[in-house]
Amino acid sequence: MAENQDKNEPIAVTAHDLPLHCPRSDAPLWSRHPRVFLDVLADGEAVCPYCSAKYVFTGERPTGHH
């Protein structure tokens, strides 16, 4: 989660961000928790079980095996 990200505001992710994991690489040290991979493609969104960050997939879905 970006340092200035509002915790209640969904975080938009694209195919470039897959495989999606939380916390993301740009998360500040104070907000780190064990890494968990999230399936954002199944429903178009996913919520982290540790920090409740909500991720929403935007853009074109990837094709083939990734």
Automatic annotation (TrEMBL):
**Pfam families in alphabetical order:** zf-CHCC
What are the Zinc finger CHCC-type domain coordinates in residue numbering? 22-55
Keywords on record: Metal-binding, Zinc, Zinc-finger
Q: Name one GO molecular function term.
A: zinc ion binding
* The name this protein goes by in its record: Zinc-finger domain-containing protein
Identify the species of origin: Aromatoleum diolicum
Lineage, broadest ranks: Bacteria, Pseudomonadati, Pseudomonadota, Betaproteobacteria, Rhodocyclales
